Amino acid sequence: MNKSFKYIGINNERNGAMSDTGKIIRDAWVFEIIPETETCEGWNLGGIDALHHKVNAEWDKYGCLVSNLPEELLERHKRIHSEWVQKARDAGWSGELEIDDEG
Asked: Which of 16, 17, 20, 68 shows its CA 20 to 30 Å from the CA of 95?
């Protein structure tokens, strides 16, 4: 593990933060593990990993399915992820890499 790693922050990622770390942060906002103002800029790998585990524990409660989220969480998920998909598209992200990897 690279001990000198410092995450650049969700607002500073390329392609609108459509990375695994960006998804973890957005989901952490959905579950209110961290406030939506927290970009995780400057966090080390241990902090990001701990956040990942907390997010996974929350998803486990709902069978890892968006459709199982209670209404309040579902609405927050839709709002946050829709905003970030639009930011990503505005930054030139198309999602093609994610689709190409599946083929």
From this structure: 68
Q: Answer whether residue 60 is part of any domain.
A: yes
Indicate whether 26 belongs to any domain: yes
- The total domain count for the chain is 1
- Which residues form the domain of 81? 10-96
CA–CA dist 55, 25 (Å, integer) = 9
Residues 1-50 pLDDT 10s:
456 889 999 999 988 899 999 999 999 999 999 999 999 999 999 999 99
| 54 inside domain | yes
Three-state SS for 42-96 is CCCHHHHHHHHHHHHHHHHHCCCCHHHCCHHHHHHHHHHHHHHHHHHHHCCCCCH
Summarize pLDDT for 47-69 with one digit per residue, the tens.
999 999 999 999 999 999 999 99
Residue 5, domain member (yes or no)? no
